[in-house]
Amino acid sequence: MVDLTLYPASWFILVFSLFTNAGELPACKPLQTTYVSTPCETDGSHWIIKVPKDPTLCNLTEPSFPLLVKDCGEVCPAGEALDIETHRCEKCKRGTAAPGDVYAVSSWPELPKDFFSDIISADDATKKMCSGFGWFPRKRYLLGNASALCATELTMENYNIKEGEVVFEYKFTDSMSLAYFTVRNDRCVLQDGKSHVLRRSSKHHWRTFQTKVPEGSSTLHWYLFSDYNTGYEPAISEFKLRNVTVTGRSALMECPECEAGFYAAKEGESHCSICPKNTFSKQRSWKCTACKEGEYAPPGSSKCTKMEPCKETDYIRQYAGCSEYGKTHLESFTISSTVCTPIGGVAPLPGGPEETCLPCPKGTTVANSTSCKFCPKGQFSDDSGACSRCPAGEAPIFGVKYDSWHRMPPLVSTFCPDADDECVLWQQNGSSIFTGPGLEDYASSSLQLDLSDGFLTSNAENLYSMLAYLRPLPNTVLEVDFELSCTEECSLSLKKETFLETFLIQRWTGNVSRQKFSYEISEAEGATFIWTFRRWRSNSKAESPAANGNIARIYSIAINNTRHTGALGCKKCPLGVDGLLCKPCGRGFFFALLRNPTTNATVPACAPCPNGTIVISDATAAMTVEQACKPCPAGTRPGSGSFCVTDLKPVTSKGQVYNLKNLMSEVSVQGARLFTSQGNAYIHNFKFHLNTGNIDNRVHCINDDHPNRNVTAWVCKETLIPKPHSSKENETFFRIAPISIGDTLVSAKPTSFSKDHARMINEKLKKAGWSADDSGNDIHYYFDSKTSVSGCMNGVSTIVTLRCPPTDNARLFSVEKTKSLSVEVPPLCVDGTCDGCNYHFLLLSPYACPICRPDDLVRLEGSCNGGQREVNLFAANGCRFDDDTERRIFESCPLLSTKGKVAISLVVAIVVFLILIIFYCHQRNKKLEYKYMKLVEGAESRVKGSFGSSSPGSDGGPQQQGTECGITEDEHDLEFRRGNSIKVISPGKLDINFRRSPQHQSKPGVGFGPVIFRGHVAEDSHILTLDEANATEPI
Fold first, then answer.
1. What is the mean pLDDT of residues 455-479?
2. CA distances to 348, 889, 958 from 345, in Å
3. Domains and CATH numbers, the chain
């Protein structure tokens, strides 16, 4: 029965339409009809109606009324179908098969009718770029591809009469992509409320997934999203799907017929089998029929095709295996996917004459007729193929150089990445090894060189566990001589696969003339190099036969300084042999030819590298300083081994010193929460460590899918997917897709390193959404990654910027500044990168500030106490104290400060001045008192002279008149105001006591007349007489 549901209103429309054209088409035969049903009703019943399988070929001539089936959940076991008339399960007849209550898709010649492919992109312009993406049938599987701009979705419509399960197989290996599977019910609600993350599979094995499907209508979604826009490849992220089965479906009312090219040999078959090669079958067949002579048919054919006459390009010529006598000859073979007949065409060339097999490559010897093996440890081989030891004093030159291809050399193998497809392996042809002819669309063939033992280093210890962190010997190079010819679309890619990751080295498309490609090995860890040839078509929906003109050919593969391989020859060792290697110089030394100043002879000796450089050489050949020593870039210093490591105390050209040891710990930061178009959340988590001086500091990003695929690097990224039903407070994550975004520290430069650097880094800071570094004090750590993405022409890199936070004025005079550390992703590129290739992070911390110089400090001085005072120092101007710097110091100080001395001096001067004024005033007062007394005495003398003596007993003669009334010649007049002297004191201005007449006195005494003063002049040398004194002088 066709899985089709009808609603009651559609019954009559369908029945009416079937009979309206009844007269125009022939009557349907029983095998041309099928049944359709309605959805189950609430009482568990449903309706069934007979309809033509193809209404354009026939029609029903009799009315077919709907049939009520009471048990909607009735099912039949595999190999049986429900008979409508008897309501019993009957076995399927030969040529038919029924899976039971299972819907199954195992072959994909086209997209099944219940499946739909969609492209999910941001806008219409992007959709035009995504025309080559989607889900495409590939016969045995369904291929889905996607990119960062072109996410794709596969949808399957489903109807279950009861709860069942969906089971499917898939192959998904891309570490930079995400794949989800969801089941939604008829209300578009997620089954169990969660999306399922499809974990990655291995390259050669399919993974199985199963989950529940609800009763009723549902949609199943496969969603593919690439985390990177990796450029040219038509299938960037690939997902292969096969063998989809859904249980819980309604019972089949009839057994489906086997399609043409398939058969069911007996009754009760659950599935139809495919017809083998060169057989065919029609629809509803129970056996396959062999093709006639001169015809052919690929597996699953509905008919045989006449063979075309062979062309010259339908054959390939290659050497047969070497015999035990070392002989071989050329043979012609028809390309495996090509079917032709030499009748009427080109016949295969006869076998060539017997030739001597080419010797095995250097360092190897014959193992058997088809392969070579390495010589015993430390031995080499010449053209004869015999293995020999090196002469005394010489050491083997380890490496591989494969340039003869009669036998497969050691460590080389060929395989097809899609093991389920017909495989066309690489084939040897004496002078080359090639592939391409007979390869079908979207098929690929790989050649692998396994050097998982790693490469030789100059490190004396040479521990295997350390190889991932050491450099190989200088000039360790992989060189490949190849050519590529593409008549249609094809490519040859070279990938390097290590224990933790696989990344693309180079990819070539189109016609590439014969050339040599070199790749320098930068890590001593083991690696596998894989060359993969692939065909595809731009029109992914089109089919094309195998194109025999597409071919990739490799003539030679050479790589030196390999571990545990044969030797290419021998070399002399200047300092002697240590085991199988030349004796090396000590750490930090290299071998050089030095001139003896005494004898003027040149002698071999170990010389040290200059300060600030590292040794990249070994003691196998004399080298100059320039050849053997490599200067460490800015911000780094020589470390152990052959690496420059982080300088924890860098000094800038401006003389600023940093101490960054407190920032040398593992740091992690999450990007913004992102969502796919289906609403599935994911977060990118970044980890980094800036101290490259210890290899144990490398951070680890986890892959919960494959724990052995975890990533270790200085900077790495992992994708976090929230686990279903975890709360936001205690959210847990599923970690997948770890990649390295920083394997090597390139340099660490301050912004002020140069004008060009300041301009470049400030542009990056502003583009990311941060402010430019106008002070020039930021330090920028530059990391390169060996992760290769074809969309990033210059590779993947990371910048970590250390920035001193702005000075907090409120905390300037506190005891300490805050010691917090914060990491930011670019504000304008919340996923850590603005272009998918270059990552940038900003670390803010006071420990990123330069150490304060004396001029940068703020001093707060205390009072002087006993000749000592306390001084508190505070950092300002964007700097900080070093860890061992005293922030509180004591200084000697004088008892009196300069201000105190000045104050005391002023006080003493004022006191002295006041004393002098007092003394002066005192002296002036004494002079005034003396003058006054003189005046009084002079006045008394004149009074006595005028009135005579009143004493009894006088002689009655006239008294001597006072002849002095004033100041002697050596005395000075009293001046009350400058420039003016009191000339006369008139009687009216005298005190009342002086104006009294003698007769008015109560007691007899002497009365004073007016006292006359004159200004002091030169004529005052004589004594005033009374008459002169009584004479008034005008004022």
1. 74
2. 10, 104, 193
3. 1-72 (no CATH), 102-249 (2.60.120.260), 308-356 (no CATH), 357-538+546-569 (2.60.120.200), 585-631 (no CATH), 666-808+818-848 (2.70.130), 857-892 (no CATH)
